[in-house]
Amino acid sequence: MSTTVAKISAIQDEMAKTQKNKATSYHLGQLKAKLAKLRRELIEPKSSGGGPGIGFDVAKTGVASVGFVGFPSVGKSTLIRPYSGTESEAAAYEFTTLTTVPGSLKMNGAAIQILDLPGIIEGAKDGKGRGRQVIAVARTCNLIFIVLDVLKPLNDLKVLTNELEGVGIRLNKKPPNITIKQRERGGLSVTHTVPLTNIDQDEIRAVCSEYRLNSATISIHEPDCTIDQVLDVLEGNRVYIPAVFVLNKIDAISIEELDLLYKIPHSVPISSKQWLNIEELLEVMWDKLALVRVYTKPKGKAPDYTEPVVLRTGKSTVGHFAE
Ligand SMILES: Nc1nc2c(ncn2[C@@H]2O[C@H](COP(=O)(O)OP(=O)(O)OP(=O)(O)O)[C@@H](O)[C@H]2O)c(=O)[nH]1
Ligand SMILES: [K+]
Ligand SMILES: [Mg+2]
Q1: Looking at ligand 1, which atom is closest to the CA of residue 147?
Q2: Domain of 69?
Q3: Same structural domain, 284 and 309
Q4: Which Pfam families match (predicted)?
Q5: What is the mean pLDDT of residues 147-170?
Q6: CA 126 to chain centre
Q7: How far is the centre of ligand 3, averaged over its atoms, from the C-alpha of 79 (Å)?
Q8: Are residues 93 and 78 in the same domain?
Q9: Which ligand is closest to the CA of 95, given by its number?
Q10: Nearest atom in ligand 1 to 97's CA
């Protein structure tokens, strides 16, 4: 494992040293492809079974699950405590939470599982602390709460997003509109219906060569598509998960500072200690989970509005309902 991490950092060093221009784009494409292949080894470790492991792997309950990801002591457990049957401990020292602590809340008739997770630190994806187990749980959630300390939200958000991106989790993004069809012969052909502003044909060629894709049609319909998005399609194991950036501890800042925080997209400022703005957080959670309520109507009787069946959008066909 450490050799994979070492190889990754060697490639990153080389990329940092290489200036991006026409003459280097093939080489940079090769490096990016090599990096993506190495990162795959971190997502699917050969040694272990691949799951999160003891203390982390909890049974899924309810219609959807929300995972709490954040640095230590940002207040994840304080927020989940009222919902967790077993009391997730919250305390002033870092790494208070050491395993996945499940809780549950009921909203609009739906049971939603919430998962308190240990704090993660930079380098988590490469095996620091319990980061890899935490991220493995996050990969399986329907929504991720990135819990941040209001005093330094932006830098921490960048680091955490990078940790999750590094293992194939894409937050608040859609799968790129790119199709790659392998063919018997005919070489590579790249077609696009949008201008290619961030990508070079040489980069695409280099990447395809690394993936031994000699004959293929690559159709790009994704505006401002990047080589990383092409790699996402080639790798195929990406997960696209909605996320809410929970800016905690607003009790510690002024109203003026709070106004600025509202400009951060996908964010909800709260105080878990003083229970401020939790209602807005729950509403945003509900919207992001995109749950649909279905009311049953017994034949010849009025519909039953008290006990809706809740389904996830995209999984709300009559078949899913019958299940
Ligand atoms: N001022 C303030 N303090 C808070 C708030 N929420 C949590 N804290 C404090 O922050 C400290 C850490 O809280 P925890 O809930 O244990 O944080 P955590 O993110 O679960 O920490 P780990 O499990 O160690 O990763 C505790 O001392 C809490 O009382 C808040 O909204 N405002
Ligand atoms: K703590
Ligand atoms: Mg905790």
Answers
A1: 19
A2: 64-173+239-289
A3: no
A4: MMR_HSR1, MMR_HSR1_Xtn
A5: 93
A6: 16
A7: 9
A8: yes
A9: 1
A10: 23
